[in-house]
């Protein structure tokens, strides 16, 4: 529709500068379509021009424009495979073809009438019409235009004069701004995305020895694209947050999702290259800080921020801990869109995959191989099933800084020996149901079967439920409540017993959108039976996080 509207506007503009457009006058039926143009707001025309400007920047679009040189004149509407008699503009197209032979189609026999008309296409169509009009004028023995035609064109010229002048001014201004940006941009292929977190926090227990702290973390990420469809992520991180609270309270269960370096030293932590292969497959090559969550939908939107400063407060609150197996390694992930309903994911990660030492490398050390299927039968409900097979030599099993010590198979003192490594089979399920556009329920459950090589078995459990509230009290704000159990060792073979109380985790926060670039998030984390021992004091961590994004 936009394409036809823009074409009519272009024709009206031409009549203002040359009388030759008398030969392209519309009939009464077409005049009715002109009335429809009057109802389109100027904002829509502006959006069309912006869309065309952005589209023209892609390689795919430039190839399409190049193909215009092969566009052929249409002698019958039936030659256009995507135009049918039921289309609202069919009579207009038929008139242009039969009366003037002035419509050109794409080399593949399509007209593409539902997409926006670009300035390149307008020039190609206009040239074709002018050539045809010149032919008609040269060969004409009778007048080509009637008085009614001329009156219609005059009315078009008068009615759209103001709109065309406004659009022309906006396009000129847009071109000037684009030229200025291109002349001063950081890079033609790369943009810089930054995030700074200020965090005021303290922890409270019956035997409270911790102090209130004010710490920060900074991330600078370069996002590069070389084809318009691929992305290279290069991220630098620094700060002084560290893992101080986990060390103070003696467990990772309340570890902040947005912690990081503690010495203000810049580190290259993420280096990923993402590119499509065909229309359905996307490949994720992870050279540093690989993680299964980077290429898999963990179904916790708004809280899943990849350690960012606008998601959950804790690492446990970000996502099902099963996706943290192998976190920090090197490897590859695949995302395959099987259909509109089903998405398949598969990946392989190896922590120490960059180390050539014996017992390390990509295939002779720690690894985790994941298979995942996401099913989304409707726009507001989806669920996923996950399986991960892993091996961890020399006590390197870890769930990415979440869970109890025993849940991470630090089994010293309970008669299990992990020196020969641990083989694991992990099973998980995730679900997300948006009850309304602003109210969402999410949840997950995971079971990890651990085989201590030549020394018995163990089982690790973790689960959680989340209530997320979008636009809470004000547009752009976000609140959530999470309750569950961080990864803990529920049973194991061994010579001595161990505490297997459920380490419950309650977390709540309210993210306030101060502006498009600033959010403030007060919240708390309450740990019950930390380190899966009810004899331990409960721990409450309070925080006020301020995030600057640019």
Tell me what the structure shows.
This protein has 550 residues and is α+β, with helices and mostly antiparallel strands. Helices cover 23% and strands 35% of the residues. It contains ten helices and 18 strands. The chain has a 16-stranded antiparallel beta barrel with strand order 3-4-5-6-7-8-9-10-11-12-13-14-15-16-17-18. A two-stranded antiparallel sheet has the order 1-2. The longest helix has 24 residues, at 161-184. Residues 1-70 have low confidence and may be disordered.
Principal-axes geometry comes out as: elongated
Taken as a percent bin, the fraction of beta residues is 35-45%
Low-confidence stretches: 1-70
Count of strand segments: 18
Helix share, percent: 10-25%
Element order, helices and strands?
HHHHEHEHHHEEEHEEHEEEEEEEEEEE
Question: Structural class of the secondary structure composition?
Answer: alpha+beta
Biggest sheet overview? 16 strands, antiparallel, barrel
Ends distance? 37 Å
Give average pLDDT, whole number: 82
User: DSSP helix count?
Assistant: 10
Q: Which radius of gyration do the C-alpha atoms yield?
A: 31 Å
Read across the widest sheet, the strand sequence of neighbours is 3-4-5-6-7-8-9-10-11-12-13-14-15-16-17-18
